[in-house]
Structures are given as C-alpha cells and as structure tokens.
Amino acid sequence: MTDVAASVTTAVSGTPVVLRAHGYEAAIASVGASLRSLTHEGRDLVVPFDSDEVRPYFRGATLAPWPNRVVDGVHRFGGGEHRLALTEPNRGHALHGLLGWVDWDVVDGDDASVTLTATVPAQDGYPWWVEVTTTYSLGAHGLTQTVRATNRSETPAPWGTGPHPYLVAGPAPLDAWTFALPADTVLEVTPDRLAPVGVASVTVDAERFDFRAPREVGAVEIDHAFTDLTRDAGGQATVTLTDPSGTGVAMTWDSGCGWVQIHTADRPEGPDHPAHRAGLAVEPMTCAPDAFNDDAYDFATGVVALPPGESHEVGWTISAR
To answer: Would you say 128 and 95 are in contact if contact means Cβ atoms under 8 Å apart?
Structure first.
C-alpha cells in the first residue's frame, strides 16, 4: 500500500513576506516578485490584492526581461528572428516579459527588506540565460526596489525591466487627483493594439498627455509611454499624485529608467468593474515598448544589450506625500 504524502498548502500568490519600518508596511508576494500592498500609517499607496487571490493582471509585478510589449511577439535582436508566445492574445503581443507568473525564490531578508531571485532560462523566442535578483527595502523615504540582471549566456542578451504598481493618492476618485508628470515626449501608438508608431511632443494632445504643470487627471484615458523626462540635480525623475484631501504618493527613479508607462486603468467592462480607474499605473521602464526591435524605429528605445557575464542594475522608490 502506498503512503499518501501530507498536502502542503501555499498562498495563491506564493510565499508571503511582510516588511515594516518607518511607518510603512509592504507586502510582497513571491509569484512575480509582486508588490501586493504598500501602506504608510495605514493609508494605501498602491492598489492592493489579497495573498489568497490570483494577482489581478500584472498589478505590482516585476517585469523582466522586458517591460511592456513585443509587437506580434517577434523580435530581431542580434540579427536573428525570434518568436515569443503571445501572452496578450487580444492584441497579439508578448506582454511584460517571462517572469510575471514565476514563483521567485526568497533568499534573504529581515524586518525591513527581502531579496528574491529567479532565472530566465533559454527558450523559444529568448535563447539566453539571465539570472535576476530583486530587493525590496523600506527606509525613511519609502519603499525602494532594485532589480539586477546577470547574463549567463555566451552572447549579448536583450534586457529591459520595470515595475507595475497602481498608485493611490487618497480617498477621492482618480479623476480628482492632481498629477505631475515631468515628460516632454509621448510615444504615439495604434488605438487598437497599442503598437508604437513614433514619438511626439506631449503638446500633440495636451489635455491628454501634458502634465508637466500639475493638474487634475480628469476624465482622460491614458495607456502610453513617455520619455524626455525632466530630472533634478541628482538625476532623479519624480511623478506625484495628490488627493484633494492633501494626501499623496510619489514615485522616483534615476536615469537608468528613461521611459515611464502611464495607465489610467480603464477597463473595457466599464465603470462597474472593481478595477476600473482604481489607481494610476506608473511604470518606470529601462526601455520603450517593443524595444527589442530597436532598429525598426527612428528613436532610441533604450534596450540594453547585456554582455556575457555582465550585470545591469536599476531601481525606483515609492513614497508617501
């Protein structure tokens, strides 16, 4: 007679980790190395999800080895044609990399920080081995995430990364939040598939894209990447959201991320969907959408050609205002 092994249950979102310091509390889920929630003095700074819930969409996920889309799932990095699985079937693209649904290993941590690792194995469409490490750490200035990639292949690997939080300014609806986005240029895309067309000044549709001077979000719908970011003396770019009550949230990153995707979280199901405009996705990215096809565009996409044995590191911070 065969013994039946005792079953072991795991939270739907993977191994749960909770960090606490300086009035902040961050919950990390190992599936996708995702930021499940972030609060300051009990106030939500991102749209959360439950530990026993399949993560909605890519909410809080770590995106690698590319953020955003590879159009048609096809890229020609290094001169050869590579075909990726179409993980955005309604638009026919490969979306947000290969690690979003991987259960990352928790390898180190304490009350205020945790480190997780995962490996992108060589596969159809991405024939490179890349080791990825991410660390979340709480400090007086908020939650900082760093992502470090190391190429273990014999040829340069295309690389890009970014996070996918939906920021929350306060109790009022998103339309009433004041938004500041220090970007001069927007990536124009096709309306149906969001495939890149070219870059333009944010003044091409100022009501929708120009938030260089802080103003209310209003009813505009945005799902676009922005670049040519204004930075402070330390090279930092900062996006801020402020609620009419005076509370707010900010996200800051350095020159390692030359792009940022902004999404007003409009759901095709309409206003009755619980996620409809529940927060503002702010996604600093090391590269543009479809960056692996860099030579197809007349603008610099920022794709990293990561040499064999070398590493690339970048980070960003979410803080209460």
So the answer is: no
Residue 76 binned pLDDT confidence (cut-offs 50, 70, 90): very high
What is the DSSP secondary-structure string of 161-195? -EE--EE--SSS-GGGSEEE--EEEEEEE-TTT--
* Whether the predicted pLDDT of 4 surpasses 60: no
What are the DSSP calls for 192-207, one per residue? TT--EEEEEEGGGGHH
CB 129 within 8 A of CB 137: no
Largest CA distance in the chain: 74
pLDDT at 8: 53
Residue 34 CA to residue 28 CA, distance in Å, equals 6
Beta strand 178-180 with 237-242: parallel, antiparallel or unpaired?
Answer: antiparallel
Strand partners, 281: 166, 263
CA angle 170, 249, 226 (to 5 degrees): 115
Q: How far apart are CA 289 and CA 261, in angstroms?
A: 9
Question: 3-state DSSP call for residue 208?
Answer: helix
* DSSP state at residue 209: H
User: What residues contact residue 94 under an 8 Å CB cut-off, 6+ apart?
Assistant: 69, 70, 73, 84, 85, 86, 87, 88, 125
Q: Which of 75, 79, 6 is nearest to 292 (CA)?
A: 75
CA distance 272 to 157: 43
**Which among 106, 137, 107, 134 has a CA at the least distance from the CA of 311?**
134
Q: Are 60 and 45 in contact (CB under 8 A)?
A: no
The two three-digit tokens of residue 277, written as one number: 């405009």
pTM above 0.90, yes or no: yes
- Beta strand 183-189 with 223-229 is antiparallel
- Please give the pLDDT value at position 107: 97
